[in-house]
Amino acid sequence: MASIDTDQQKKSGRLGFRMPKGLGLVWVLIGLCIVAALLSPAFLNPINLTNVMRQVALFGVVSVGMTFVILTKGIDLSVGSIIGVCAVTCALLFGMGLPVGVVMLLTLLAGVLMGAANGLGVAIGGVPPFIMTLGMMVMGRGLALTLADGQPISLGQRTRDFMWLGRGDFLGLPVPVWVFLIVAAIAIFVLRYTAYGRQIYAVGSNVEAARLSGINVKMVTFSVYLISGFLASLTALIFVSRLTVGEPTAGEGIELEAIAIAVIGGTSLFGGEGGVIGTIIGAAILAVLANIMNLIGVSPFTQQIVKGAIIVIAVLYEMWSKRRANK
Q1: Where are the transmembrane segments (predicted)?
Q2: What is the mean pLDDT of the chain?
Q3: Are 192 and 13 in contact (CB under 8 A)?
Q4: How many domains does the chain have?
Q5: What whole-number distance in Å separates Cα of residue 323 and Cα of residue 252?
Q6: Residue whose C-alpha is closest to residue 145's, from 262, 246, 296
Q7: In angstroms, how far is CA 88 from the centroid of its own chain?
Q8: 84: closest CA among 50, 55, 114?
Q9: Which structural domain range is residue 74 located in?
Q10: CATH assignment at residue 69
Q11: What is the CA radius of gyration of the chain?
């Protein structure tokens, strides 16, 4: 394993720890907050700031999983459908009268199994990540709608403890924020300080070189989709506990949000570069931007145009930077 510690891979490992492109993203976030405060005094309202933090947490958790996948030069378009299936599964399990802990474990297992299916298709079956996860996206959404018969499923009356996950507070911060911070901290540690993290960067940087270095490329590839599925199911639990219903359409479009957050945070769609710290800042930037547009009355449809444009601009900037660096 020592052979993978080339200069390029060491550089990639550091990218998982430090903020990408220096403090640029932090200044962008600060600038957006200033603009938001100037455009609408309501932005600095404590209730609004709490809602922004919840938004960061909800999208941030699934975006961490997306970051792991993109670092290996993959993509996971199925995370929204996994959230939908897990949301419906959670509600159905509560309807069976199962204990809260059992419901949560089985819901997480459902997400892991769907992530494992993606991983097997990509790593073992050789299906391109875009095609495999696109197929899972369509099948998953159909499964969620079938299980729920196209209707939201109420959790019933036995969910007061479970609601704490999505609605509760701890030490002055919403519980979902703490969940996101824990997930992000573990992910940063894994990518920065473990051999597995270095293997992820190595696979994304050069899959053939990684294979020749003794890395089990198929296992690493399989594992990142497993992580993505698990974090998508965790996001589903937060969604359901906050809304107290299992929506078969839950998570619709969140794959766009997750990709945008990862790309804004400096994770390269070409693999091997980026990290979770950038994802945290990217989630905050996108949440503040969405909040600004909501406060000034921008249509949700127009917001989708803006978010799509952000992805395109970020990728174009990355490609321009790479061409400039190669000159």
Answers
A1: 24-44, 56-71, 77-95, 102-124, 170-191, 222-244, 256-289
A2: 86
A3: yes
A4: 1
A5: 35
A6: 246
A7: 20
A8: 114
A9: 2-326
A10: 1.10.3470.10
A11: 20
Burial of 97 (0-12, 13-18, 19+ CB in 10 A): exposed
Mean pLDDT value across residues 238-259? 88
Length of the chain (residues)? 327
What residue type is assigned to position 18 of the chain? Answer: R
CB-based contacts of 116: which residues, under 8 Å, 6+ apart?
Answer: 222, 225, 226, 229
* Residue 168 pLDDT grade (very low, low, confident, very high; cuts 50, 70, 90): confident
Task: Fill in the amino acid letter for 237.
Answer: L
Angle subtended at Cα 306 by Cα 309 and Cα 184, rounded to the nearest 5 degrees: 85
Quick check: 246 and 88 in contact, CB under 8 A? Answer: yes
**CA gap 162, 210 in Å, rounded:** 43
pLDDT in tens, 78-97: 999 999 999 999 999 988 88
**Whole-angstrom Cα distance, residue 301 to residue 184?**
30
What's the predicted TM-score (pTM) here?
0.86
* Distance from C-alpha of 173 to C-alpha of 51, rounded to nearest angstrom: 11
